[in-house]
Amino acid sequence: MMRVIFLLLLSSIAFQSNSQTWNNYLQKRFKSYGIWADSILLVPNDTSLNKTGFAIIGTTAYIGNGTKWSQVSGGTSNLRFTSNVVVNGGTGTKVGIWNEGETIPLAGKLYDSLPYILATKCNHPSYVTPTASITASPANGSYERGTNLGTITLTAGGSIGNGGAYTTNTFYQNASPLGGNTTTVSSLTSTQTFYVNRAYTQGAIINDNCGNPDATGRINAGSANSSSISFTAFDKRYWGYSTSSPPSNSEVLAVAGGSTDNTVSKGKGAFVITVTGTNKYVFYTYPASYGDLSSITISGLESIGAFTKTVGNVTNAQGFAVSYNIYTSNNQFTNTTISFNSVN
Questions:
Q1: Which of 85, 145, 156, 252 has a CA-to-CA distance to 133 between 20 and 30 Å?
Q2: Among 233, 259, 289, which residue terminates a domain?
């Protein structure tokens, strides 16, 4: 009986010893090949699969760029990438929004910021260059030759953009600097052109789309020119009837039965003169600098031979005299409407 009991006890000890060894082995195998299995987490020694993604092996993290894995430094609670990664998996490879050949800025970044890094590119900010503009009082535009504009007051405008601040304004008249922002034109006889140059200081550094200060493209101290504005002199052309041939200056300005407009050419095109009364001449006149007419038609018939051209000064409503070609009919008309056409 004692011998039987001893054998049972020995068997029990042997069984318990083998069971403990097998359990330890299972635990080791499970830890080595269950949780840390290379084929599941794409760990760095994988050579058959595309190495793109993120893996944690125990307390070590890795980032794949398509062809290789790079280790991330730190412990499980503060993992950081040790270097940047260049996407290098061949044409068409993408890691997040990063394309083949681009560098993913990972160095020093926490591993849990990876989704943000893979979805965000930090681009240089767009610095806005300062601009300049100019206005005038009275307003720029076209005025009859000889107009007294009086004192012209110029005002600078524009947008400082990402520059610092405007410092000085220099106004120019016909490309020559003025001493201030005013000038006097008592008789506008030729086009007067103005612009302003606005100096500004260096602007501040602004942040990129990731919130990082970025001086690329920063606005340095400089200046901006406005576009030009002009006061342009024009002459009128006149048509109507008169009692004398050629018409007097006052009859030209009165344009009885006709009208006037700003000269753009010597030929007026189709227009009408309505004669009221008896024995009236009809006339058409424009600045002599435009040259002679080639044709005048009355009611569709060529009639330039029925007019006499004279050259004389016409003093306009501004009191300014200009040399004019004056075409006056050889015949007189009574209470009639004449369809007139002139051709350059």
A1: 145
A2: 233
